UniProtKB/TrEMBL annotation:
InterPro entries attached to this UniProt entry: AA/rel_permease1 (IPR002293)
Keyword field: Membrane, Transmembrane, Transmembrane helix, Transport
Gene3D superfamilies linked: Amino acid/polyamine transporter I (1.20.1740.10)
One Pfam family recorded for the sequence: AA_permease_2
Protein name, as recorded: Amino acid transporter
UniProt superkingdom: Bacteria
């Protein structure tokens, strides 16, 4: 029983981190832009309209604020771990040193599907903006090739193609994909400024009435759904072994990006639900739709161009995060070793990148966007809940570890964070819980059938016993 909760040694992690084989190419500015790139995208350009129409109405702005509060609390916990255990793997690695192997395996297993599903979700939103852009040039793709089977089509082909393109970029290595990401984030921010600037002249406050058509239950259901929109910082924390001075640069990037993104979400939500009535926003390209509805087709076209470029940055960050989790688990022996093999030229985990990319492409082509987003939400919220609890445990078990950043108000902050996470999880549907339960059950089967025996810690224990 004890072997199920064996923990990685922090000292060995820090020592291995100094000799990490991954290239350190990311500075504080790169980390901040990568985090903004992961956070600003699908949430503001896609989920805002869908959640407003289905869950919260104009009060979707409150949904974003509620999620932001929880995510900022989680980010403070992440920042402490990132500054004290700067290793690839994010929540998986943090929990491995605090709660032990079995819990870490399930968290890593959950994060793999969360990032893969998130990439697919973003690709679905990207496809909607891409098709809107094509329409502006008179190009109309066959409906069967841009629609998933449950909606009467065969496959969402543009979504598959963009995921494969992002996979190719990551396969080439972090240094190359970093340059592309920074450009895409700047374009994305310019597009949002355009939307707010043009939309501000067409705001109609009558569209904000009723403000809470679905009541507080709708606001909290919306908060659970848009939680996905803030979770990009977790993907960035997986890059610790590729960051220059991670103890300093990771906390700066994580916290700064979340504060900037929260302000952006609030402004965009207010403008969007004022320009167009929430009942009309049940579309994946809500921002472009809103501008078209008030006769600003030129701005909608420019926005679609920027969205096509900018949303790609989100896929880049999520695919990056998923491949690094898979890489970390493979390196620890919990999954086959081939996933931790690095490319000769790219020095990036090539097999892990390809597997995550192919799985995301398949999902993007055939699965409903909203269902994907909710599955990503529940897995990420569960991981965040455990990270919050882990901060308390790690403070007590490893008080000697140097921390470049310390989360405030411990243990009160982590406990409150965990409670908020639970609250959001219980606002998700029974169907989402069912999918989550199936994935966790599969993870348990894999752990007891393969991971427990092949774990690096188990191999070390066996050597010590035989010696």
């Amino acid at each position: 029983m004890k072997s199920l909760f064996r923990k990685k040694d922090v000292a060995s992690i820090l020592e291995n981190n100094k000799k990490a084989s991954l290239n350190r190419t990311l500075g504080a500015f790169d980390v901040t832009l990568m985090s903004i790139g992961a956070v600003i995208g699908t949430g503001v350009m896609v989920l805002t309209g869908l959640v407003a129409a289905r869950d919260a109405g104009p009060a979707v702005v409150l949904s974003f604020i509620a999620s932001a509060i929880v995510c900022i609390m989680v980010a403070l916990c992440y920042a402490e771990f990132a500054s004290s255990v700067p290793t690839s793997g994010s929540a998986y690695s943090y929990i491995y040193v605090s709660m032990g192997e079995l819990v870490a395996h399930l968290v890593g297993w959950s994060l793999i599907i969360a990032y893969t599903v998130s990439t697919a979700t973003v690709a679905g939103g990207w496809s909607s903006y891409f098709n809107t852009l094509l329409h502006e040039f008179g190009i109309i793709l066959p409906k069967s090739l841009i629609t998933i089977p449950s909606q009467g089509g065969i496959v969402n082909l543009p979504a598959i193609i963009i995921v494969l393109f992002v996979t190719f970029l990551l396969y080439r290595g972090t240094k190359e994909s970093k340059k592309v990401n920074n450009f895409m984030v700047i374009v994305k921010l310019a597009v949002i400024i355009l939307f707010v600037g043009v939309g501000a002249f067409h705001m109609d406050t009558t569209n904000l009435t009723p403000f809470m058509p679905y009541g507080w239950s709708g606001v909290f259901a919306g908060a659970a759904s848009v939680f996905f929109a803030f979770t990009g910082f977790d993907a960035v924390s997986t890059s610790a072994e590729e960051v220059k001075n991670p103890q300093k640069n990771l906390p700066i990037g994580i916290i700064t990006s979340l504060l900037v993104c929260t302000a952006i979400y609030v402004v965009v939500c207010l403008v969007l639900t004022s320009v167009a009535n929430y009942t009309q926003l049940n579309v994946a390209d809500a921002m472009a739709f809103a501008l078209q509805s008030v006769g600003q087709g030129w701005a909608a076209s420019l926005l679609s161009v920027g969205a096509v470029i900018g949303i790609t940055a989100v896929m880049l960050a999520y695919s990056f995060g998923g491949s690094r989790i898979l890489y970390s688990m493979s390196r620890d022996g919990l999954l086959p070793k081939k996933f931790s093999v690095l490319g000769e030229k790219s020095h990036a985990p090539s097999a892990a990148t390809v597997v995550i990319g192919l799985a995301a492409a398949l999902m993007a082509g055939v699965v409903d966007l909203k269902q994907l987003a909710d599955l990503a939400n529940i897995t990420l919220i569960a991981a965040f809940l455990l990270v919050a609890i882990s901060v308390i445990i790690f403070r007590r078990t490893h008080p000697e570890v140097e921390r470049g950043f310390r989360a405030p108000f411990v243990p009160a902050l982590p406990i409150l964070t965990a409670c908020f996470c639970l609250f959001l999880m219980f606002n998700l549907s029974k169907e989402t819980w069912l999918y989550f339960g199936i994935w966790i059950a599969l993870g348990l089967i894999i752990y007891f059938a393969y991971s427990r025996k092949h774990s690096t810690l188990n191999q070390d224990e066996s050597k010590n016993i035989s010696a």
